[in-house]
Amino acid sequence: MKKFYIETFGCQMNVHDSEKVIGTLLNQGYEQVETPEQAELVLYNTCSIRDKAEQKVFHRLQQFKREHGKGKVFGVLGCVAQQEGDRIFERAPHVSLVCGSASYNKLSDLLVQIENGDRRVTGLSLETDETFDTPMTRRDNPHRAYITIIEGCDKSCAYCVVPMTRGPERSRTSESVLEEARRIADAGYTEIQLLGQNVNSYRDPSDRGWDFARLLRAVAETPGIRRVRFTTSHPRDFVKDIIDAIDENPVLCNHVHLPVQSGSSTVLQRMQRLYTRDQYMRRIEWMKSAKRAIAITTDIIVGFPGETEEDYRETLSLLDEVEYDSLFSFKYSRRPNTPALALDDQIPEEEKSRRLSLLQEHQRAIQMRRNSELLGVTEETMVEGFNRATGQWIGRTSRNQTLNFTHAWHPEPGTGDNLIGRYLPVRVTRAGPNSLAGEALLSAN
Ligand code: 5AD
Ligand code: SF4
Question: Which of 255, 329, 435, 439 is buried deepest, with most CB atoms within 10 A?
Answer without folding.
Answer: 255
